[in-house]
Every structure is written in structure tokens, then in C-alpha cells.
Specification:
It is built from 15 helices and 16 strands. Helix 12 crosses helix 15. The longest helix is centred in the middle third of the chain and has 20 residues. The protein is 39% helix and 20% strand. The termini are far apart. It has a nine-stranded mixed β-sheet with strand order 2-6-7-10-1-11-12-13-14. It folds into three domains: 288 residues, no CATH class; 112 residues, no CATH class; 57 residues, Arc Repressor Mutant, subunit A (Orthogonal Bundle), CATH 1.10.10.410. It is an alpha+beta fold. Strand 6 and strand 7 form a beta hairpin. The protein binds zinc ion (ZN). The site of zinc ion (ZN) has 8 residues, from loops. The site of zinc ion has 8 residues, from loops.
């Protein structure tokens, strides 16, 4: 039986967070009143002239450098011609044969190895408007041109990705880098990061490129992985039964978890690219590129290394904490005021991330700040609260934004470290469970845990566990 491997390439569109649009001075804002961020230029009135937004160029260079690309000394804009109701000019300004950045790469780490995914190109272009279909059962569609002319980068890989998991890892890494650069917020749900995938199969050990299928409409990294898994299965089935693969575009449906045919190659558009006569070609000097390179922030891979070196964190912790710039900043703020990075890491990775996920929140939305966490850890160190109680305090701080000391006081969560009080409880537990005491004496180590548990239960978790242990051992 022939063993197949997947050949996957990804195209990612990133909406840039510039103040204004790509070729006019309209605000670049998500969620404004429909058709409020528009002007004669982005509405494609005859006789208007586009002017390149310098930030688009700069953000493009930053992204290219962070992805290890060569920055072209010469590039230009081309018209990509097609008709669609959300595109009043009937062409999109894009870059065809002379893109801004070429020949980069991004390394991703799977469980087994580091995989280098080559990047074919990064180019600049503008977004189209948006159609709103059937609002309130209407039998017509509306067009909102606020997004028309918003600056985009298109980042295209070589077909170097071999598994759906690698595709997801590549996207996660790419998103982190772009967020670190501060050029986009990468919100898939708001469309500021969009991904299309190309995929074909071939027998393992060959380097042929078979007919590929394009998949669109994936709205999360998880969806990309699932869509690719499904497509591998579909193509595999076709090869097994001797049918041929037809070049086509398929749309992903997140609800049914399947793809369906959108269009075949016969209908594929011919964009009739030609150089835009309104925008002058761009000549970039090495000085400009180097000055932008010097201004790049520390990127996720470097920061991960530093977290391992400086804070002695395991690779796993460092990877999770540096996966977003905000989270890494949060962690560093904590450890600047607290001596035990591993302890901070545990609380941030386990409890903090869990609560953020549960409430679908971003780090910046959290009422629980680094100073909240540091104060709570200090209360634990002083023996004011136990580890078990700390979890309750943490959740309360997260929900209300109250400081640890206030929560402990309001909820009466002080740890009981009064020896005579605890001794009384220990005596009571021992006389209530003579059989367990007997078990322990016969060598059943677990029995002690049960007895400690009984005391903790009576105090609703507030007893100092070390002290309870000590008191029990003295008496058994
Ligand atoms: Zn405009």
C-alpha cells in the first residue's frame, strides 16, 4: 500500500493597525457606523489619486525582517482586476511580480523536531469592503465600504508544511510575532487575521507536486487544523479508489466540520495584473531598512530563550508565557517584585490562563493585575493563607479586582495556625476514627492523608497543613 504525505502551503492576510487607510486619510477602525470611514479616494470616485501610507510600508518591512526575509530595494503596486460589488474600483491595489519581501522563513517546534517553513513572499495590498446579506430577512444585500482600502499584508509560505498540526503551530507562531511587532491585533473573529490553505498529497519519498485544492473560510486555527485533516482524508480516499483530484476551491463549514465545493479551476479568475499608473514605484535604501531593523522589539523565540536563561524556567513554561507579548509582559512584571519565577509561572499558566479562557478574556481585560498576584504569593509565604485557600482568593480577585488582603479579611479566610486550637481538632478526629489510626500503625501510609483531610474539612481548608501533619504525627 502506498503511504502518502501532505504538501501544505498557507496564505495569511493580516490587517494592519495603522491609524489611517492604505492610500487615503480615512480612519482605519473596526466597528464604526457603516460607510462612515470613507472618502472620494476609497469610494473610487473618478479623478482621485491614491497616496501611499508610510506606515503600511514600514509595517511591511518590520514584518518581513521579523520573518527573516530579504527586503526588496525595488517594489511596486499592481492592479489586480476583478469585479465584485464590495470593490467599487473593480481592481485591488496589490503587488504582483515585485513584492516588498522575499525568501524568508519561520521555524516551528513540533514534539519531534524543529521544522523550517520557508516564506515565499510578503506583499502589501488593500482590503475590499464588506457585503451584509439579508439583514432582518431583507431580500437585498448592503455594502459597507469602511474596510475598503484598509492596509493588508499577505504572507505566503512555500509548500513546506507536512501536517495539519504544523500548520496550526506555524499560524500560532506567526500571530505571536505579528503581535510582538505591534503591527496588527490579529483578531480572527474580527477578520484582522485570515488564512487560506493549499493542500495536495503525494507518495512519501517523492517530491512531485500533485494537483492541489484550496480551502477557504476557516475562522480559527483549530478550524484550519480540522479542515486540513478532513481534506487529507478526502484526497486519500480519492487516490485509493483511483479517482483523480480536481483543482478547486472548497469552503470550510465550522458547524458541520466539512468542506464543500465553491468553484473549480475552469471558473478561476484571470486578474490581468498591470502596474498601477497612479503610484510611483518604491526604491528603498539600505539605511532605511537597517534603521527599521534596529527598532525591532525582542521577538518570541528570543524572549523564550531569555526566560529559560534568566528565570530558570522549563522550555514548556517559557513557551507558553512568551506566546503573547501581553502575557510575557504580565509575567515579567510579577517576577520583578517576587523572588520565585517558577511559582509565578505556575499561577499564571494554570489559574490565570484558565480563568481568562473560561471568561473569553484577554490579558489586558483582567482586573487581577501583577501586583494582586504578588501580594497573594506573599501572604502564602507568610503563612497567612494556605495554598488551597489561595485558589479561592485568586478566583475572587479575578472576579472583583479586590486585593488579596481585602479578600482574606472579608471572607474570613485567614489560615488557622493557632496550635492549641488545631490540637483540639486533631484529638477529636483521632478519637472519631480509631480504625484509621490502627491502619496507620500497621503501616498504611495513606491513612495519615485521610486524617489530615478530616481536619482540613472541618476548617473548610483553613488549617495550616504542615501544623496539622505535625500534630497528628505527635499523637499517633
Ligand atoms: Zn478614504
Amino acid at each position: 500500500m502506498v503511504e502518502y504525505e501532505a504538501v501544505i502551503g498557507l496564505e495569511v492576510h493580516v490587517e494592519l493597525r495603522t491609524k489611517t487607510k492604505a492610500f487615503c486619510s480615512c480612519p482605519n477602525e473596526f466597528g464604526s457606523e457603516p460607510n462612515s470611514n470613507v472618502c472620494p479616494i476609497c469610494l473610487a470616485m473618478p479623478g482621485t489619486l491614491p497616496v501611499l501610507n508610510k506606515s503600511l510600508l514600514e509595517y511591511g518591512i518590520r514584518t518581513g525582517l521579523a520573518l527573516n526575509c530579504e527586503i526588496a530595494h525595488f517594489c511596486k503596486f499592481d492592479r489586480k482586476n476583478y469585479f465584485y460589488p464590495d470593490l467599487p474600483k473593480a481592481y485591488q491595489l496589490s503587488q504582483s511580480d515585485f513584492p516588498l519581501c522575499l525568501h524568508g522563513y519561520l521555524d516551528v517546534e513540533t514534539d519531534l523536531e524543529t521544522r523550517r517553513i520557508r516564506i515565499n513572499r510578503v506583499h502589501m495590498e488593500e482590503d475590499a469592503g464588506k457585503l451584509v446579506h439579508g439583514e432582518g430577512n431583507a431580500d437585498y444585500s448592503l455594502v459597507d465600504l469602511n474596510r475598503g482600502g484598509v492596509p493588508l499584508l499577505e504572507i505566503v509560505t512555500e509548500p513546506d508544511i507536512r501536517t495539519p498540526e504544523e500548520a496550526r503551530l506555524y499560524l500560532e507562531n506567526l500571530k505571536a510575532i505579528i503581535q510582538y511587532l505591534g503591527v496588527s491585533d490579529c483578531k480572527m473573529e474580527e477578520g484582522s487575521l485570515r488564512c487560506d490553505a493549499n493542500i495536495s498529497l503525494r507518495p512519501v519519498g517523492t517530491d512531485i507536486l500533485n494537483t492541489k485544492v484550496e480551502i477557504k473560510n476557516m475562522n480559527s486555527f483549530r478550524a484550519v487544523q480540522r479542515a486540513l485533516e478532513g481534506e487529507i482524508e478526502r484526497q486519500h480516499g480519492l487516490y485509493e479508489t483511483g479517482e483523480s483530484i480536481i483543482q478547486q476551491t472548497r469552503g470550510w463549514d465550522d458547524v458541520t466540520g466539512t468542506t464543500s465545493l465553491m468553484r473549480t479551476k475552469e471558473e478561476a479568475a484571470d486578474y490581468r495584473y498591470f502596474p498601477d499608473p497612479d503610484l510611483v514605484p518604491i526604491h528603498l535604501t539600505s539605511e532605511l531598512v537597517e534603521s527599521i531593523r534596529k527598532g525591532l522589539p525582542e521577538l518570541p523565540a528570543a524572549r523564550k530563550e531569555r526566560f529559560m536563561d534568566d528565570f530558570g524556567l522549563p522550555a514548556y513554561d517559557a513557551g507558553v508565557l512568551t506566546s503573547s507579548r501581553e502575557l510575557a509582559d504580565y509575567f515579567e512584571k510579577c517576577v520583578s517584585d517576587y523572588h520565585d519565577p517558577k511559582k509565578v509561572s505556575n499561577w499564571v499558566m494554570v489559574e490565570f490562563l484558565r480563568l481568562l479562557n473560561t471568561h473569553n478574556m484577554e490579558v489586558r481585560d483582567a482586573k487581577l493585575t501583577p501586583s494582586h498576584l504578588v501580594e497573594m504569593l506573599q501572604l502564602m509565604d507568610q503563612g497567612t493563607i494556605s495554598g488551597k485557600i489561595a485558589k479561592t482568593v485568586f478566583e475572587e480577585m479575578f472576579a472583583t479586582g479586590k486585593k488579596a488582603g481585602i479578600v482574606v479579611e472579608e471572607k474570613g479566610l485567614l489560615q488557622i495556625s493557632d496550635e492549641s486550637k488545631l490540637a483540639e481538632m486533631v484529638e477529636a478526629v483521632l478519637s472519631a476514627h480509631p480504625e484509621v489510626v490502627e491502619d496507620y500503625r500497621k503501616g498504611k501510609g495513606k491513612a495519615l492523608g485521610f486524617l489530615v483531610g478530616q481536619v482540613m474539612k472541618q476548617t473548610r481548608g483553613k488549617a495550616n497543613p504542615q501544623m496539622v501533619n505535625k500534630l497528628l504525627l505527635e499523637r499517633i
